[in-house]
Amino acid sequence: MAGTRFTIAGAVLFGLSMAADGAKPTLRQWRNAAVIGTALMTFGNGILGWSEQFIPTGFAAIVVAIVPFWMVILDWLRPGGVRPTRAVFIGLALGTIGLIVLVGPLAIASLSGAREGIPFGPVAALVFAGGLVWSAGSIYSRYVDLPGSAVRATGMEMLCGGAILLFIGTVTGEARVLDIGSISARSVGGLVYLITFGSFVGFTAYIWLLKVVPASKVATHAYVNPVVAVLLGSTIGGETLTVRTMIAAAIIVAAVALITTARARGSSH
Question: Which of 111, 123, 163, 193 is most buried, judging by how many CB atoms fall within 10 Å of its CB?
């Protein structure tokens, strides 16, 4: 499903960008797009989606909170990297605390509710690996040759990452167990939503932001996304908005404000 989502979205975005001006990407740009697509779509999104079959969503949300740390550290360690200020580190820590408050201690401790017989250590390690590779791919995309159009670059990356996901899903036997008859209008609607808002809008904005703002600011999406999900759940899904949720949202908003207003300075190494 992840491969289907990204392949369709990538084909549409790439086709639209080619129809607009017809400028063909170079082989080097395709190579760079393949590296980024593999890092973000195959490893980052693919591993997270697979892991959430076996671990609670709350636990996964906490693990994903490591992404901003990876991005800041990797951007610092690269040649000529940007050393984060103290305010950025404080903001990262505050954002993680807010996320822990948001998902709640019971959700974090609900590992016993996951499927039996699955070793949580390796699964959690895969999520960590996915976050690390996602972050490395994000930093890599800031400094390599890609098409000037964010739409075209995103389409190329999705095509490459989606194709790899489709290949993995096929060789692991997922295609054999696909039941076309069980596909409902609701599931198709979910796929269309992910393609439209998650891929067309979300990923294109993400790739564009990586080019124009510091990595630490882009990374704040890992804190903001869960808050948006909770707010949508309360307004659209009729879920209860608790005091703990509002406190967590306030902490996360403060963390994001601290990170986005902090000034980065050049690396000293």
Answer: 123
Cα separation values, 76 from 32, 70, 139, 216, Å: 21, 10, 10, 10
Apex CA 152: angle with CA 150 and CA 153, to 5°?
A: 65
pLDDT digits (tens, 9 = 90+) for 248-265: 888 888 888 888 887 644
pLDDT at 25: 96
Q: Do the beta carbons of residue 65 and residue 223 sit within 8 Å?
A: yes
Q: Mean per-residue pLDDT for 156-179?
A: 94
pLDDT for 269: 43
Phi/psi region, residue 104 (left: phi>0; alpha: psi -120 to 50; beta: rest), is left
Render pLDDT for 35-53 as a digit per residue (tens, 0 to 9): 999 999 999 999 888 887 7
CB–CB of 73/29 below 8 Å?
no
Amino acid at 120: F
As a whole number of angstroms, the distance between CA 53 and CA 77 comes to 34
pTM over 0.85: no
Looking up tokens 């779509």, which residue turns up? Answer: 41
**DSSP state, residue 85:** P
b/e string for 238-259 if b means 16 or more Cβ within 10 A? eeeeeeebeebbebbeebbebb
Residue 16 scores a pLDDT above 90: yes
Instruction: Answer whether 262's CB lies under 8 Å from 91's CB.
Output: yes
How would you label 124-144 residue by residue, b for 16+ Cβ within 10 Å and e otherwise?
Answer: bebbbebbbbbbbbbbbbbee
Region label for 173, one of left (φ > 0), alpha (ψ between -120 and 50) or beta (otherwise): left
